[in-house]
User: Fold Diguanylate cyclase (GGDEF) domain-containing protein from Aristaeella lactis.
Amino acid sequence: MNNIIGRSFPPNTVEPGSGRRYRIAFFTVDWNYELVENTLHGLLQYTVDHPNVQICVFDCFGKDQGNDKDRSEYSVFQLPDLSRFDGLLIQSNQIVLRDAWEKVEAKILETGIPAVSIGCELKGCSLVYFDNIRAQYDMAEHIVLEHGARHIVYLTGNMNNSTEGRDRLAGFQAACRDNGIPDENIEVIHCTWRTTDGVDVARRWISEGRPLPDAFVCANDEMALGLMETLQENGIRVPRDVLVCGFDNLSSAELSSPRLSTVHTDHSKLDYYAADVLLNIIRGEEKRSKIPFGYDLICSESCGCHNAPRRGVIRDLYFQQTRFLRSFYVQQDKMAEDLFEAADLPDLMRIFSRSHAIFGCDNVYLCINEYYYDNYDKSMWPNYAECFDTTMVLVNDNGNGREEVLRFPTSDLLPESMMKTEPFLIFYPLHYNTYSIGYIVLNGICAAAKHNLHESILNFLEIAIENVRKKSLLHNLNDTLDDLYVHDALTGLYNRFGLSRCGQQRYDDLLASEGSVQVLFIDMDDMKYINDHFGHESGDASLKVSARILQRICSENAFIMRYGGDEFIIIDSGKNRSLGAEIIAAADEYNRASGMPFGLSLSVGAVRTDASERLPLDDCIKAADSLMYQNKQKKKAAAEGQPLWINRNLPKS
Assistant:
C-alpha cells in the first residue's frame, strides 16, 4: 500500500499581499456525482485558503453516447475564453466521450495555457494522478493472497475513452500474472463503468447457470454495487459464496451490506493538491510533468475482511439523508408552483431570481441566450442555436428590491460587478434537445449534488423554461390569428368581425368620454370601372391608398373598417364636424400628385349623435349609408354625365 500524499491541505502558497489575482478554470463531467461533489469541496476550500485565487468550474452531465444530448452537455467546455484565465485544471478521468476529450486537448494546445490534468494524461498538460495500475494491482493481490482466490472475473471500465480503464485492467492482469493465476482462470468482461453493467453481468451469469468464480473484481464501485445487489437478490451470498470488490470508495460503498471492499482516494484533497500544483506552474515554481498522489485499500466485508462501518455512522447518514430529502421535495414543489405561474420568460427569470433556495447557494445566476430571450419562434434563431449566443441576458436584483434586465458579452461569463466578487463559481449548461438555452451559475456547491439531485433540478428548470417559451409562442400565435380574424388582409383596417368586437366598444367609449360621436359611411366611386379597365391590381392599390388617407385624417383612436368591397365605416369623435370634407380634400390632394389616369373619388355620408340622443350604432350606420348615397347622386348630377373616376387634376395636353 502506498503512502498518502496530501493528507492535510498544503499551506497557502500565494504571495501574501502580492495583489495578484489568479483565475483558474476547471473542466469536469458529473456522471460520477459523488466523485465530482468531493472534488468541488476541495476546490472551494482552496479559494477559501487562497483569497486571491478565483476558480470557475465548468461542469455538465455528459455521458459517452455521443448523441445530441451529450453534444449539448459538453458544449460547456466551449463557454470560457481561456485567454482570460491564468490556468486550467481538467478532471480528465471524468471526460468519457472521446470527441469531447480531443476538443479539450486541442484547445489546450492552441492556447498554450498552463494546464494540469487530473487522472489521465492529456497533451499540453502536467499530470496529477494516483497510480491506477498499482492500486488495482494491490486490490487483486489482496484477493489472491489473503483470501485464496484462484478463479477471478474482472469487469473493466470503458476501454475506448479512458486510460484509467486500461490502467486498472493492466494492474489486475499484472497481479494475477505475478501471483501465479493461469490465464484460463481469468475472465475479463468489457463494461462501461455503469451500475447496469454489474446488474447485467450478474443476471447473465445466473441465467446461464455458470459456476461462480472465487471473486468478481470490478473497475469501479458502481458496477460492483450493481453486481453484488443482483447476486444477493438471487440468493447468492457475498462473501460466503463469492467475493466482490470495487474501486473509488463511494459513500454507497460504505453503506452497502455487506460493506464493499474498494480503493479509496480523497478526491477533495487530490484536486486541492492539483490546484496548488497548477498555481506553482503558473508562477514557474513547478517543473515536474507527472506528480503522484496516494491511495488506501479498504478491505472490508465483501471480500471476507471485517472492517465494517460503525452503526452510528450509518444511522447518522440515514438521518441526514432523510431530513434533506424531506426538505428537498418541499422546495422542489414550491419551485415548480412558482415557475409554472410565469407568464413569459422575463417573468420566469424574475421569479427564479427570488426562488432558488433549492440550490442551497447564496447566489444563483440564470443566464439566457439573447436570441432565445428575444425570439420565442425558433425559425428566428441564428444557425448557431446549438451553441451559446455572443450575448447573454440576466435578471438581477438591483439592491432596491427591484429586478433589472442585464445584457452582457458571453465572454465575460457574468457582468463584471458580479464576477469580481465571487471567488468560486460553477457553470452548468442549459439546453432543450439540441439547442442551447444558456447556462446557470452557482456561487457554491449545490446541496442536492451529494444525492445526484442537482441534475434533476436543472432538467426541471430546462423543461420549465421551454414550456414558458412554447406557451408564449402559442399566445403570440393566438394574438396573430386573433388580429387576422378582425382585420382586413388587404388594407389592414378592421373587418366586419372587428366591428362587432371593437367598433361598438369604441362607439360607447366616445359617447361616455366626450358626449358625442360621429359615424361616417364612405364609398369609392366607379370602382368597378377601375377594376375592369385598369386591372384589379390598380383597384387594390386604390383601396390601400384610400385606407391610408382615412388613417391619416382621422384621430389616432378612431375605429376604421373596410365594410365591403369598396365601402368603409369610421367611428370617431363628434368634435370634428368637418371630418368628411377633410377626407374628400385629402383624396383630391392625392390625385394632384399621383399622376394616375384615374383618380380617387370618395362619396361620404356622416351622422353625428350625442349622449342625450344616443342612437344605436346600427341606426347610425344605416343613416350614414343613406346620406352617402344621396351625396353620390348629387356628385353624378354635377358631373353632367362624365364618369367620376376621371382624374381631373391631370395637366391638360
